[in-house]
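Q: Got a minute? One more chain.
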Amino acid sequence: MTDTTTWIRRVLRVLAPLLLAALLSACGHVDRSGQVIVWEQMDPQEQTLFDKHVEQFRQQHPEFAEFDIQRVHYRTEDLQTQFQTAALAYGGPSMVYGPADKIGPYQIMGLLMPIEDLLPAGEIARFDPGALPILDGKTWGLPDQVGNHLTLVANKALVDSIPVNTDDWVAQLRDTTRDLDGDGKTDQFGLVFNLLEPFWLVPWLGGYGGWVMDDRAVPTLGTQAMVGALGFMQNLRRLDVMPRECDYPLADTMFKTGQAAYIINGPWSWNGYREAGIEIELAPMPMVSATGLWPTPMTSAKCYSINAYLDPATKECTAALLAWLTGYEAQVDLARKLSVLPSDLEARKLPDFETDATMRASNAQIAKGRLMPIVPEMRAIWDSMRPGYQNVMNGEMTPQEAAQFMQKRAVDMIARMRE
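A: Always. Here it is, folded:
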């Protein structure tokens, strides 16, 4: 039995109740021959830019005036399940938009149309090959940006200079953690970030010489590198340079209100800090002094992928819209507004990427990052890292215990996927 077959069978078992409901609801067939629908997990700024680009598309392509182009938003954690359920019932959107790591499961389940079936090779050739999600020799999405990466963000009102190594940085974090009113409680922290999600752990795993899997998609979590990364994160908490409990909303709010010298966050957040009145400076996360290695945040493209069950009547309009949303002008607009890196090779030649300090720092961090694997096993990696990481941060596991726990859990989960 092939890995592809076993993966599909397992997903079908999990989704069977939802799939049955979708099939029953599909009995009242909805005619979508006049609709092009995009399901997405964009942040508010991305949604605004999407709507702007669609309006420009309508103006430039009157031949598609009869098509109703819609955007439907889902939370990131809901989009994958919703799309899988709908597409397995031969429904769903024309396109689905999100991080490239979701494409592997979609492709294995047969839910996507190769881009080569929709656009000519010349259109695909203008993209950075390293940004394209390619599996089995086919392209399964077109990216409008590359990055989606974490970087170090400093509040310049609280930080004079940004250290380049962790020894100096941790010393600065201790210095910028202060009780400002003398009541015995910390009012300003050196650092805030999301303590709940392993996406924030991965950069330090790379800084200690490790990675999440090998080139055969075998987990590599039970390593000394993972022990080192977890120990570093645990030490930050023990030093009280960050809040004891810190999820994403709390970290974001504290930084916006000037209660933290640093935050670790991605390009989706930077303009929000400026709008809150914080003067920010970006820099790569500091080199790990113990190893001499730089942290390696995961980088990924965000892509538009095509539903395998696209209504044939909408194919021409969908192809044109896809080319427009990932075109040169749209990518330049995204890059300038969001400080992301275009996937279009010509767009990368703009002088903005050398003269704009935010873009320059963002690109420097991308250069030290590593591409997020798009294989289905990555889901098991995340689900295995999360509880182990949280158990270290709340004191229920040592770094050594957590590393072994993560490895065993990941191996077991992948084995069950392939049964």
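A: The longest helix spans residues 3-25.
Q: Perfect, thanks.
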